[in-house]
Structure formats: C-alpha cells, structure tokens
C-alpha cells in the first residue's frame, strides 16, 4: 500500500468532529495548510494534526501530498461534496445569531440589482447624510440574499412582492422602467444579454428587438453594457434613469408593459426594532419618491 494511504484494517473508525471538518474545508478553500492556518488563526502544525486526525477517524486519505501542493483524492472530493452543505449551514447559523444580536454600530447592508445599486450610488452622499451616523454597505447582486439569516438587512426587489415571506415586511416604494437605447434612432447592431432568451423577460425582449440586426456583443453587466452603448457598439437594454440622462443616447423604444417594474423595499420583521435599519429604509423610500419621474422614464 502506498505510504499516503491509511491501513483501514487497523483503524477503529469514529464520527468526525465538526472542528476537523471545518479545518478540512478551510484547507481546500485556501489551497494549503499554511494559508488555512493563517485564515483560522491557528498554527500550521495544528492544522496538519487536525487533518491527520480526520483522516484517521474516517480511515481515508483525503489529500495527495506533493512537494509543494495538496490535491484532493477521490475520497477527499467526495467528502468535500458532503461537507460543503455543513459549512454553509454553520455559516448561516452564525449569520442568523448575529442578526438577532446586531452590533449597533455595524453598517446597514442594502442588496439590490446592479442597475438599482448604480442608481443608489449616484445619490450615495444624499443617503449618507439622511442616514448619518449610520454607514450603508451596498451589495449589488441578482441573487436574492437571505434576509432571515442576516445576509443583508434591506433588500430592494423588483416586479413582484416576494412570496412565502411571513417573517418579512415589504412596502412598494416606487417603479423603475427600462428601454432600448443607442447612439442613433435606428441602430444596426445590438448588445444582448448572455442568458437564454427563454430564461429572462429582458433577454426575450432584447432578442425580439435584435431580429434582423447584428449581435455586436453579449454583456451581462449593466454598467459595462451602458459604456459599450455609449461608445457606439450598438443598442442596449438600460434603465431609463440612466439612458434618458445621457445626451449621447437616444431612446429607441419607449418603456411599456413588463418594462416598467414595481420596486419593493423588504426587511425582516426584527429590523423594525433596529433604528439604524429603519432610518436607512426611510431614506431609501424618500429617495425613490423624489426621483420617481426619472425612474419611470419619458
């Protein structure tokens, strides 16, 4: 048997400890025992000892150890797949606990799509003044972060009121419209989103507009798509507050129907007792109210 293998016939197997699994996940995530030790605030010998203890408890070799690297064995890859949900669950437990005993000085985290976050960034100084002394942390993502487990404090979500939200409170704070913009009124090329047109209303709308035109590029990131349209690459799907304000762009098609979406401000019920979160929420609602005309376009 190779020296890196474990003789399972001589081992009394035991359930692995979570501490050892946590260290195993850290080694995989950081690529080495030294890096994992730094991330965990432990010594490299301690990390190596805990990995060895895990291997002995399982009766498996989890890593193929080379001169300057570690590679997962087949068993190691299988264990990683099984342990990852445990790591995610442990992180969720930590976030949830922190959400119920929040640091009063912690920034209020606001999550929204890239287009909405970009709009907020233009008014960041105004929001900062309205929410002071609270700091606001902006998290641009299309994923719906879990407010219940504390991944964010406020979510700005579009189109429909979230379902299955017994522990969440939501209020409609305005609307936001989207349209096709280009340097000319009859563009020959289109900047399309990368996703399948059947998976997104916006992608389907752009695909229909693109019929008979050249697809110049596929760009998912809205700020980059905007810069490409502004440079003359082709027509792009943009929020009206951005396209209408740019003198270099013209609105090729007016927003209508599904291109005008409701915006909901969503919080967990416990946030009602957190003055910092409610102050930021009120500032966001006021911002949308003052800028509703620009947000829905002309």
Short description:
Belongs to the LysR transcriptional regulatory family. The chain is of the alpha/beta class.
Quick tags:
single chain, 298 residues, alpha/beta, Arc Repressor Mutant, subunit A, D-Maltodextrin-Binding Protein, domain 2, 2 domains, nine-stranded mixed sheet, two-stranded antiparallel ribbon, 11 strands, 41% helix, disordered N terminus
Tally of discrete structural domains: 2
Please provide the count of β strands.
11
The name of the CATH topology of the largest domain is: D-Maltodextrin-Binding Protein, domain 2
Query: Can you tell me the residue ranges where pLDDT is under 50 for at least 5 consecutive residues?
Result: 1-11
- What is the element string, with H for helices and E for strands? HHHEEHEHHEEEEHEHEHEEHH
Mean residue pLDDT: 84
- Helix share, percent: 40-55%
Major β-sheet profile: 9 strands, mixed
Kindly estimate the percentage of residues that lie in beta strands according to DSSP.
15-25%
Number of helices: 11
GO molecular function, one term: DNA-binding transcription factor activity
Protein name: DNA-binding transcriptional LysR family regulator
Family: Belongs to the LysR transcriptional regulatory family.
Domain HTH lysR-type: 16-73
């Amino acid at each position: 048997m190779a020296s890196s293998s474990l003789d399972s016939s001589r081992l009394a197997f035991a359930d692995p400890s979570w501490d050892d699994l946590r260290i195993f996940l850290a080694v995989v995530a950081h690529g080495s025992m030294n890096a994992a030790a730094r991330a965990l605030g432990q010594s490299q010998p301690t990390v190596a000892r805990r990995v060895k203890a895990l291997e002995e408890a399982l009766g498996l070799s989890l890593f193929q150890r080379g001169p300057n690297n570690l590679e997962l064995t087949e068993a190691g890859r299988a264990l990683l797949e099984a342990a990852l949900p445990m790591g995610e669950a442990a992180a969720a437990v930590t976030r949830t606990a922190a959400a119920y005993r929040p640091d009063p000085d912690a920034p209020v985290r606001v999550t929204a799509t890239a287009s909405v976050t970009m709009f907020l960034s233009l008014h960041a100084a105004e929001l900062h003044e309205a929410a002071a002394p609270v700091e606001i942390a902006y998290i641009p993502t299309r994923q719906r972060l879990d407010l219940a487990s504390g991944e964010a404090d406020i979510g700005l979500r579009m189109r429909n009121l979230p379902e299955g939200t017994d522990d969440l409170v939501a209020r409609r704070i305005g609307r936001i419209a989207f349209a096709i913009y280009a340097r000319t009124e009859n563009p020959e090329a289109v900047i399309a989103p990368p996703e399948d047109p059947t998976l997104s209303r916006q992608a389907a709308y752009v695909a229909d507009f693109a019929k008979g035109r050249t697809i110049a590029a596929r760009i998912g990131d809205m700020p980059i798509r905007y810069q490409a349209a502004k440079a003359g690459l082709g027509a792009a799907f943009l929020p009206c507050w951005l396209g209408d304000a740019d003198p270099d762009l013209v609105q090729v098609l007016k927003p209508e129907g599904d291109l005008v979406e409701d915006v909901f401000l969503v919080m967990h019920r416990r946030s009602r007792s957190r003055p910092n979160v409610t102050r930021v929420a009120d500032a966001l609602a006021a911002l949308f109210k003052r800028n509703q005309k620009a947000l829905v376009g002309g």
